[in-house]
Specification:
With 565 residues, the chain is mainly alpha-helical. Helices cover 64% and strands 4% of the residues.
Length: 565
């Protein structure tokens, strides 16, 4: 019957479960043998890919226009009437395969994951998980509607970013306060949403028979290779190895700007009094210059990016009623990735596109794997693909700039890595505190207090006096805390891997790029440490490895600074 299944997921966007169910029933009813398990797995991959793509396409539709009522209705219908049945059917197939004792070709790691998922699955959690997904739309609607009046124009908060780079400090300060005050207007709404999220997640964990949502989430994220204790070790290592380097960067910036201390609106302006980097004027220029960069870098990667441009798989510009942030998602049946961003003409937009292109290249490079389930790499390595691409592409930034500005852009990026690790520690530490202390964490005021404590511990060198209301609500402005709980330490671990990959590329560019692509081609078929090793890095969270990374970055910054003058 699979021969009658549509090949294009767009034909299934409004399919009810009754149209999908027969294909799952067919798979459930087959007898599995060593001779047919690969063919059975291939059929499962086909139907899974189509339904997964339907879900992702509907999510994209509500991301690109949070005011699109028709798309929201379609997504909610999917979440309410298709997703619960689909998840149950998927669970039955996992159990069937596990009970058979058979292993489809190349699926050892996938079977390990299925065992955890089978153990974690509870039917009573399906409506709760659906409700949690709907809350994501609420968060997106609240933050996506945050606009301000700026010099006679209505702008999104994101569109104010270029003003933070103005040499006129009064302009920067006014823009910063304008954005902050608009975001604080939604403080009550986001506090209420947090309480709803938090209560729901505690119930999900309890239904699964687990003592905390942290333990539930750890298993659902399939984290086999590190523990919450390792995250604490990582945060301590960041405090030892990175926080002093970050504070020194802030000290140097303040000195260059002639300021006794930095304020939050002094962090994006060029400290050498040079004009802000303006890498592109519109989306056509952004995509055109990025395509040129990849042509200079690697023909295969250039072909992947050109395919995305040709197939209209990029939505990059910022506009009202568009969800904040950036992401890359997968249209599994079409075997194509899709990139979403909010570009406003600053260098950070270039980095975002390079980052999400790394995710997209992961999808392209692993396309030869026979089953869709194999392509799902652990996020800690998926972020090596994206962060590694930002760094591997850095020698080719002259697609956007002259040599001096390319050096300035790379300095900005490398300093950003140093400054990111402490911020990551704040986000990760906050989530561990919240779900280990569910009573206090249900009170947004105590969340504010804990966020402020962590910010003061890890983020040194900026004067926040008189701005505690803005600083302590920083957790409101990190969408992962609301939408993707515990998904943030991956960035810190992956950044450490990416710096190692980049370090190897400084010694031998061609072999480093070949190893990077070979590791991406493995998808999720290997354990996390093996994926890192294939890319030429070591999976680590210790202070010694962090110190080596900081030393490498500091050495490169010293070489770049004369070129940027």
């Amino acid at each position: 019957m699979f021969s009658s299944l549509p090949k294009d997921a767009k034909n299934l966007l409004s399919w009810p479960w009754a149209e999908i169910e027969p294909y799952y029933k067919d798979l459930e009813q087959r007898t599995l043998t060593a001779n047919n398990v690969d063919a059975w797995m291939a059929d499962w991959s086909t139907i899974y890919s189509l339904v997964d793509e339907v879900h992702n396409r509907l999510n994209v539709a509500t991301s690109v226009d949070t005011a699109d009522a028709a798309s929201k209705d379609l997504l909610n219908t999917f979440i309410d009437t298709v997703q619960p049945q689909w998840k149950q059917a998927e669970q039955r197939l996992k159990r069937k395969l596990l009970a058979s004792g058979l292993c489809p070709r190349g699926c050892v790691q996938q079977l390990k994951q299925m065992r955890v998922e089978a153990d974690l699955f509870r039917e009573q959690n399906l409506p709760l998980l659906a409700q949690e997904q709907k809350l994501r739309q609420t968060f997106s609607a609240i933050t996506g509607s945050q606009t301000v009046q700026w010099d006679g124009r209505e702008l999104t908060v994101t569109q104010l970013k270029p003003a933070y780079q103005e040499q006129d400090r009064a302009v920067r300060e006014r823009a910063w306060h304008t954005a902050a005050q608009r975001q604080l207007q939604d403080r009550g709404k986001l506090n209420d949403l947090w309480k709803e999220y938090f209560t729901l997640r505690q119930q999900i964990a309890a239904n699964a028979g687990l003592p905390s949502f942290r333990e539930y989430r750890w298993r659902s994220l399939l984290r086999f290779d590190y523990t919450p204790r390792d995250c604490e070790t990582f945060r301590d290592a960041i405090e030892q190895a990175v926080v002093p380097a970050a504070a020194e960067l802030h000290r140097k910036r303040a000195k260059k700007l002639g300021l006794p201390a930095l304020r939050p609106w002094d962090l994006s302006v060029d400290p050498d009094n040079q004009p802000a980097l303006r890498p592109f004027k519109d989306m056509a220029e952004l995509t055109g210059k990025t395509a040129r960069l990849f042509r200079d870098m690697d023909p295969a990667l250039a072909k992947h990016f050109d395919t995305m441009v040709a197939d209209r798989l990029l939505d990059l510009d910022n506009r009202a009623n568009k969800r904040p942030g950036g992401y890359c998602t997968m249209f599994a049946a079409a075997r194509r990735p899709f990139i979403f961003a909010n570009a406003v003409g600053v260098h950070d937009d270039v980095q975002t596109l390079l980052h999400e292109s790394g995710h997209a290249f992961h999808a392209f490079e692993s396309d030869a794997l026979p089953y869709a389930q194999q392509a799902d790499a652990p996020m800690e390595f998926a972020e090596v693909a994206s962060m590694g691409m930002e760094l591997l592409a850095s020698p080719h930034l002259e697609a956007f700039y002259d040599r001096r500005d390319a050096a300035r852009a790379l300095i900005e990026h490398l300093e950003g890595i140093i400054l990111f690790w402490p911020y990551m520690a704040v986000v990760d530490g906050f989530q561990h505190w919240a779900y280990a202390n569910p009573g206090p964490a249900l009170d947004p005021a105590q969340c504010d207090t804990e966020w402020l404590r962590l910010a003061r511990r890890f983020e040194a060198g900026v004067d926040w006096s008189g701005l505690d209301d803005v600083r302590m609500t920083g957790w409101h402005r990190k969408l992962h805390i609301f939408i993707h709980p515990f998904y943030y330490v991956e960035y810190g671990l992956a950044q450490l891997g990416a710096v190692q990959v980049w370090g190897k590329s400084l010694r031998d560019k061609s072999s480093a790029l070949a190893a990077y692509r070979a590791a991406l081609a493995l998808g999720g078929t290997r354990p996390l440490p093996e994926l890192f090793a294939a890319a030429g890095a070591r999976f680590a969270c210790d202070a010694a490895t962090l110190r080596q990374a900081v030393a490498l970055i500091s050495g490169q910054l010293a070489e770049l600074e004369p070129l940027a003058r």
